[in-house]
């Protein structure tokens, strides 16, 4: 099988407006002036040739609106713009004293003693990615991330954990899509005694958490397609032209990919929203 060699590369005039132009940022609370809908930005996406912003209200309901005029920020009208480029977003995050997840950095705050609640992820790479972007926030909250190394026995692991009030569990699952093995396992766990209100299982649509890194961060247009029946990570590294024969090669390849991630702006919105959902579940009374 011959692969095209892919690999990370080294790292119109604006319309005049009297209103301030504000790039959309995850977590920014906006009001749509026409409908009165108020919600936090969860993602910005391009659909049908236009940029749309999704606003989630305090009840968890979401609506999408076209970027541009018609938004209020802190009661003031603005022109909502697409998110700043990755480099600018990373620089502005650091300059504003924010963590890699975009939250306000708490000066002098020591890590809390770990709470009983936990975040479980499928593997080591998932845990390392979450630590790199959300580690500061999780230490402030006293929440520990633990890798499961697969979810085939998730039901048994949850039963052994004994979730309950003050001992909640958030689980982030790879490839959690309709009619998949993962969705059936998740449904079975949530039907078990004690899970309701104490366990939250969410997931992203990707085969592996590697794909949650935005392709543009790696200098490519899209992730390579791996032929069916071939190990996915091995195929990805082969397509990049990187060593891929051993477990060590896989680990080193992942470290290269992880090294390209500097903040939340480098990750896909479908992962960002789910991780934030889990953190809120474990920390908000």
Question: What does this entry look like structurally?
Answer:
The chain has 285 residues and is α/β, with parallel strands linked by helices. The chain has three domains: 21-83, SH3 type barrels (Roll), CATH 2.30.30; 88-209 and 261-283, Rossmann fold; 214-259, no CATH class. Helices cover 29% and strands 21% of the residues. It is built from seven helices and eleven strands. It has helices spanning 86-95, 124-141, 154-161, 181-190, 232-240, 247-259, 269-283, and strands at residues 21-23, 29-32, 38-47, 50-56, 62-66, 68-73, 76-81, 118-121, 144-147, 169-173, 199-203. Strands 1-7-6-2-3-4-5 form a seven-stranded mixed β-sheet. A four-stranded parallel β-sheet has the order 9-8-10-11, sandwiched between helices. It is globular, with a radius of gyration of 20 Å. The chain starts with 20 loop residues before the first strand and ends with a helix. The model is unreliable at 9-17, 86-92 and 106-113 (pLDDT under 50).
Sequence stretches where pLDDT stays below 50 over 5 or more residues = 9-17, 86-92, 106-113
Enumerate how many helices there are, as a single number.
7
Helical/strand content category? alpha/beta
| Basic shape | globular
Number of domains: 3
SSE arrangement:
Elements: E1 21-23, E2 29-32, E3 38-47, E4 50-56, E5 62-66, E6 68-73, E7 76-81, H1 86-95, E8 118-121, H2 124-141, E9 144-147, H3 154-161, E10 169-173, H4 181-190, E11 199-203, H5 232-240, H6 247-259, H7 269-283
Parallel strand pairs: 1-7, 8-9, 8-10, 10-11
Antiparallel strand pairs: 2-3, 2-6, 3-4, 4-5, 6-7
